[in-house]
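A quick aside before the break. I want you to see a complete sequence-to-structure record at least once, exactly as it would be stored in a machine-readable document. Don't worry about memorizing anything.
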Amino acid sequence: MIWQFASRYFWARKSTNAINIIAWVSVGAIAVGTAALVIVLSVFNGFEGLVKSLYSSFYPSLKIVPEGGKTFLLTPAQLKQIAQVPGVAHYTEIIEEKAVLSYGGDQTIAVMKGVDDNYLKVAGIQSKIIRGKFETGDEESYKAVVGIGLETALGVDVEHSLVPVSVYVPRREGASSQGIDLSLPEQALSNGVLYPVGTFAIQQDFDSKYVLTHINFMRSLLSMAPGELSALEIAITPKANDERIKEQLQELLGDKVRVQTRFEQNQTLYIIMRMEKWVVYIFLSFILVIAAFNMIGSLSMLVIEKRKDITILKAMGSPNNRILRIFLSEGLIIAGIGSLIGFSIALIFLTLQQQFGIVKLGGDSFLIDAFPVEMHLDDFLLVSGTVLVIGFLAGWYPAMRASAQPIDLKAT
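That is the input. The structure line, written in tokens, reads:
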């Protein structure tokens, strides 16, 4: 009965056209706000998904790092136990160190990342090779895959050049160790040569920083003992729970190492992306707040219009609570119709954007040519809840006025 009254009040022609106009303006404002919220949140989802896909090609599902210092030791028995943990698909041993690279008179600083033969099973770097091939070589000839930023900085031609890149890293003993002449700084450095054979392009942070080579090259260059690692990167099976596997690995290896999920490896980045999304949501919600003022005006005029009906209902014994709910329902109808229209607009636009990329990104320097979008059910539920709350609050004041209105016999 309450919804029947509210529905008839909304659709019926009013004696003053302004009431109808203001009501539909409220519906339009809510539709615009709803569509804007859903579209913008979906664009943020798209960019977040894009960034995660780029980072996931370099960062593993789980990573074991030392709790303190640069390296830690893992015995063959421990590696076997790690491989037997449910959910662990593959692992790869890693040795990392900063180094100075020299090629043809040009020098730059990079992070050398030594990997073993299982690396391609853990990381998706293979799909990011844009020139040459992924190959780290062997003891006869160590090779390297460099980021496109480093390739440019050094002027390396990975497909045709036969000239190696010289690599210099600090000796682990330190410059003050016995046997090192302080008057000859070069004695504090270990050096080796690598032959670049491939170039990868992922994201600027990686492209201008990393060189991938064989782990044995780094172990020899740094004089590291067998089993000594900078990190152990792990790929998990599909649908496996990374948090659960993390707990099992942490319990297995103890407190001398720290097991990190992909989120923890990039915690700052993910937190910033989430904060940006919430800030945009809050600001765009003000569009709905503006629509709420239109609703208050529309419902207040409707209360004046329906004074006679209110008097009759009260005379027939309707309690104030029922009058209150009728006009609250009226506000929810306006919010509901507006949100449905807004969702329809957003769905049409987002589908067209996914299929045809109708809104393009400017310039040619982006990895994609159109704004990425991803529709998440959580966003639709969030916006629906927001619209309903705003509709309820906007209808509360006029509904209270209607319920508190005394019986006016003159109005009948």
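Two observations worth writing down. The first helix runs from residue 2 to 11. The two ends are 22 Å apart (CA to CA). We'll return to this after the break.
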